[in-house]
Amino acid sequence: MQVRILGCSGGIGGDFRTTAMLADDDILIDGGTGVGDLSLEALARIDHIFVTHSHLDHIACIPLMIDSVARYRTKPITLYATAAVLRILQEHVFNWLVWPDFSRIPKEQTPFMRYQTVSVGQRVVLGERSITPIPAQHTVPAVGYHIDSGTASLVFTGDTTSQDALWEYINRIDNLRYLIIETAFSEQQQDIAVASKHLHPGLLAKELGKLKRPAEIYVTHLKPGDDDVIMSQVNQLAGQFVPRFLYNQQVFDF
Asked: What are the Metallo-beta-lactamase domain coordinates in residue numbering (predicted)?
């Protein structure tokens, strides 16, 4: 299995792209602005979209993508999320006011998009691959995702703050290889991090202390312009875990 990072920044500007990951060529994990760099042909091959939560930086390109490729496809794109997240997307995005309801066009019986509700711990099997929502704690309903190739696993926390349930789940993954975890704000902005339920380097270090399995750790969602400062503080405070900077177009094979 291969996962390519299409976007991993906490904002836009220049080369910065917001959160999106392409698993193989048919699965999208979140749909931030990084999706816009894919060709039309690549976009049309995506059959499954897994959404962590409803914030704009994680969903911005999903409505545009579906609109762009719908006429080239013979089956609907499946949008996976928890019931709470799907309700937000239905009421506030695909509502005919912000964007068309692609779950009802061109016909309700043959739509361009369909919704699939998932819940924490519920494994979605796609061939030999599985994707499982995992606990996250954010300002809106949210999950992370555990991606298992059958040989090894990658965990993406999504947006989250401190919580034990996430680590209880992660510590049960026997074939864990990669952990991608957010750290949005620097130590100087830890009050904003706490208020918005994100991690900062000091809190990241405390959270990583709960990890009981070996893994390559990558830090994502850094605010543009503060990335060097945040990574310097991460290295100072969580150095024993050797977290690495996640970069755009990075590829994970597992």
From this structure: 17-198
